[in-house]
Amino acid sequence: GNSVTQMEGPVTLSEEAFLTINCTYTATGYPSLFWYVQYPGEGLQLLLKATKADDKGSNKGFEATYRKETTSFHLEKGSVQVSDSAVYFCALSDRNAGNMLTFGGGTRLMVKP
Amino acid sequence: ETGVTQSPTHLIKTRGQQVTLRCSSQSGHNTVSWYQQALGQGPQFIFQYYREEENGRGNFPPRFSGLQFPNYSSELNVNALELDDSALYLCASSSPGTNNEQFFGPGTRLTVL
Q1: What single DSSP character describes residue A64?
Q2: Less crowded by CB within 10 Å, the N or C end of chain A?
């Protein structure tokens, strides 16, 4: 079956530091890959996505590249802000599985001023 | 354009009771998916409804059931509540016209005592 593994948190960084959150996946088909962000007390917001190998998703300074050869979709940001503090979820959807989302366990990011 | 809404925001029930959670999909979306997010974990897929029919189900027992109405709103029903059912329940709507990208509501926090 499909699965997503992401690095455990919390990840604590100082403002303007470089961020990497690792994500790897297992899928039987050709999935689409997503990063969602969850702020305290809120639902999930789509941060970025990539639908095929070598695609790069980007939004609000965050980037992730779909690497089929390493089955990875690592999230990066060059300079984090305090407002980026949240929980980040890597996820995949597989057209062969009805487009349901399979999520990783989440990584909490804490950015200190 | 109205986003995905869920009600109630919070709910407290006791073991053995039954609960109904409600979701209104985003305008133009005909597919609703439900997810359970236990504290500190990633969301887990419960089931999906498309045009009033169940269109996929995750690894949840039959006491989790749902409905979708002609206006594409949806209900999640849970019978014989157990303590482990305490979680944030997320609803997401989508449509083939949006490449099935799922848009999440804010969730319903269910506490079972």
Answers
A1: E
A2: C
> What pLDDT was estimated at residue B100?
67
**Are B45 and A98 within 8 A, CB to CB?**
no
* Mean pLDDT, chain B, integer: 93
Write down how long chain B is.
113
CB atoms within 10 A of CB A83: 10
**A66-108 pLDDT tens trace:** 999 999 999 999 999 999 999 999 999 987 777 789 999 999 9
Cis peptide bond upstream of B70, omega within 30 = no
In angstroms, what CA-CA distances link B13 with A84, B24, B66, B90, B110?
34, 22, 19, 18, 8
A25/chain B closest Cα distance in angstroms: 14
Instruction: Tell me what pLDDT residue B99 has.
Output: 66
Task: Name the minimum distance, in Å, from the CA of A106 to any CA of chain B.
Answer: 6
Of B33, B41, B104, the CB nearest to A100: B33
B41:A97 CB<8 A: no
Tens-digit pLDDT profile for residues A8-26: 889 999 999 999 999 999 9
- 3 state SS of A71: coil
Which residue has 């995949």 as its token pair?
A92
